[in-house]
From TrEMBL, chains A, B:
SUPFAM superfamilies assigned: Homeodomain-like, Tetracyclin repressor-like, C-terminal domain
Stored PANTHER family: HTH-TYPE TRANSCRIPTIONAL REGULATOR RUTR, HTH-TYPE TRANSCRIPTIONAL REPRESSOR BDCR
Disordered: annotated span: 212-232
Sequence ranges assigned to domain HTH tetR-type in this UniProt record: 20-80
DNA-binding region residue numbers: 43-62
Pfam assignment, any one: TetR_N
Key words of the record: DNA-binding
DNA-binding among keywords: yes
Protein name: TetR/AcrR family transcriptional regulator
Gene3D superfamilies for this protein: Tetracycline Repressor, domain 2
InterPro entries: Homeodomain-like_sf, HTH-type_TetR-like_transc_reg, HTH_TetR, KstR2_TetR_C, Tet_transcr_reg_TetR-rel_C_sf
Length: 232, 232
DNA sequence: GGGGACGCTAAGCGCCCGCTCATCCTCGGC
DNA sequence: GCCGAGGATGAGCGGGCGCTTAGCGTCCCC
């Protein structure tokens, strides 16, 4: 179901491209802190101390606190785009590719909830230039999903009235997983990925839905909504 | 440009229950500020000046900044619950009631995006007691939607594998509207409500979907996702 | 028309913020 | 054995934070 590598960090994000080591530790600490308390509520002192360094050390590797957010956001969006591209461009019917795209995108949001929260919800905290750059990536994300839905609609595989609106809803559904997913909850990222892929295929009117998905039934309550972090 | 009071109308939230007048103006100013910049990034000086008062005036009507957020959150959740209850308890088939619940819930999130953002995304900023109170309201919100889906599933009107998971997804889809909806975008809250009601009926496998919804087709692009505020 | 209650403000308290800087430690090259 | 470069630090800057307090005007009640 998942490789050892994927399970290695609860976050399945490698961050290997960030060097040197101290810079990566600071970035990781910032992801955690931003996800828990939000960008504006996080202090540079908090980030530095999570990384086991003095407050001033941060400024050797990053010009400002915002640069940290920018780097996290770009790397995260690139990873999200890569996941969707891989699913969109594999072989198979539009149904198979859409199910793959949704389930892997959802798994990423659930498993890497910490990163995904920062990536998806702190966009407004970026300055205008950085935000424009990230928005360009988001447009590509949108285009990948829209592409699959368009193909399915064109071939008659799907039954969709409003392609752009449906695309928006599908992405919205996946992204919001980062808000409510609880690591201690009753569902695994894989289960949610499967459930969501089935729901999305129904949304686009795919001819044959997820056939015998089974097993998803009757597994107790989920804690409503409880937006999760804070604990520490 | 316009006062907080004037802009609040676009919000369809009355706030009439908040008295005296100065306390209501402060609350409205806080809603705006929290929605734009987030609770932690909003200063009491900003709230007071938006309400046309001195910084100290805030503390005549509210003990702390957090009390403002608590009041906003409780009033908002009560309104959300009222909307869903009204839809859930009217006469009609489960299909009709679910469509009504979704479309009116979505309209509230789109029209009152400012309020809804604070209500749905600033839960973590509350202290433990206040948050526990709000979470109880959220459990009731969840129960209303789950109730409709259960009835539809029991009567054979719907085809649902995982009632709780589907409930979660439906609520998630509606709530996330507050994140991406753009007042200047191409879609009206009513159009999104209709689209989403149709999508949700498909998700639960309702026998007859939204029949000839029509008109939703081909109305140009939406601006990807752009999470909006910040403008000022 | 005197007096207290109320709504509000100017001033400011103690604290912590993002960020800087002079200094120090460590380590590879010669 | 000495030196320079770069990573890391303790101290601290200017400023803004949430919130308090002393006092002022404006009403209502008698």
């Amino acid at each position: 179901m998942s490789t050892a590598e994927e399970r290695a960090d609860s976050d399945l994000q490698s961050w290997a491209e960030v060097t040197p080591d101290a810079a990566r530790r600071l970035l990781l600490a910032a992801v955690e802190a931003f996800a828990e308390r939000g960008y504006h509520a996080t202090t540079t002192r908090d980030i530095a101390s999570r990384a086991g360094m003095s407050p001033a050390a941060l400024y050797i590797h990053y010009k400002t606190k915002e640069e940290l957010l920018h780097r996290i956001s770009r790397i995260g969006h690139e990873k999200a785009l890569e996941i969707l591209r891989t699913a969109a461009r594999r072989e198979g019917s539009a149904t198979e590719r859409l199910a793959d795209a949704v389930s892997s995108f959802v798994r990423w949001h659930a498993r890497g909830r910490t990163t995904a929260r920062v990536v998806q919800y702190e966009l407004d905290s970026l300055g205008p230039d950085a935000r424009a750059e990230i928005l360009a990536l988001r447009r590509q994300v949108d285009a990948e999903v829209r592409g699959i839905i368009e193909e399915g609609a064109a071939s008659g595989e799907f039954d969709v009235l409003d392609v752009q609106g449906t695309t928006l809803a599908v992405l919205s559904l996946c992204i919001d997983v980062a808000r409510w997913f609880n690591v201690d909850g009753p569902r695994t990222p894989e289960e949610i990925g499967e459930l969501y892929a089935d729901l999305v295929l129904r949304m686009v009117g795919a001819k044959k839905a997820g056939h015998g998905v089974g097993k998803a039934e009757g597994q107790g309550r989920i804690p409503v909504d409880g937006p999760g972090p804070r604990g520490r």
